[in-house]
């Protein structure tokens, strides 16, 4: 469901825009917004609604873990992309759920012509960390249709 108009998007983005994701801005092309849905002090499962403006995407990255770990994406509004290293990109629409095992290089973000939100779930594990890698270059991104 592509949504180019921000006002239209706000009507369907049920978990809210949140604040500018300035802490991780260096790992994104474009602007993203973060709305935490759980408090890490109250539960071992952290959930956040992440919103991407049209064309925004995060860098390639890997969720490392000695055991457990990884990430779940639950797509809630707009239209986006998910891609694992060496594989074709997958279109993301509301209702799509992506399971990302630990140690898998990947990226995700909005399509060029749509706002996009997903709930990001950090899967608990032992010795978890994120490794941020190179940006998804414009040539690669603009080829996605």
TrEMBL record:
Organism: Gallibacter intestinalis
Name under which the protein is recorded: Cupin domain-containing protein
Any Pfam family the entry gives: Cupin_2
Domain Cupin type-2: start-end pairs: 50-113
CDD domains per record: cupin_HNL-like
């Amino acid at each position: 469901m592509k949504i180019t108009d921000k006002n239209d998007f706000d009507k369907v983005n049920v978990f809210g825009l949140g604040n500018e994701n300035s802490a991780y801005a260096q790992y994104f092309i474009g602007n993203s917004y973060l709305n935490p849905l759980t408090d890490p002090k109250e539960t071992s499962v952290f959930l956040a609604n992440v919103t991407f403006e049209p064309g925004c995407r995060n860098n390639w990255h890997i969720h490392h873990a000695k055991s457990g770990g990884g990430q779940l994406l639950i797509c809630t509004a707009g239209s986006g992309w998910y891609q694992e290293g060496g594989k074709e990109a997958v279109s993301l629409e509301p209702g799509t759920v992506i399971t990302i095992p630990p140690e898998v290089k990947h990226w995700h973000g909005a399509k060029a012509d749509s706002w996009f939100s997903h709930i990001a779930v950090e899967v608990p594990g032992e010795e978890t960390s994120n490794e941020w890698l190179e940006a998804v270059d414009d040539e690669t991104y603009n080829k996605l249709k």
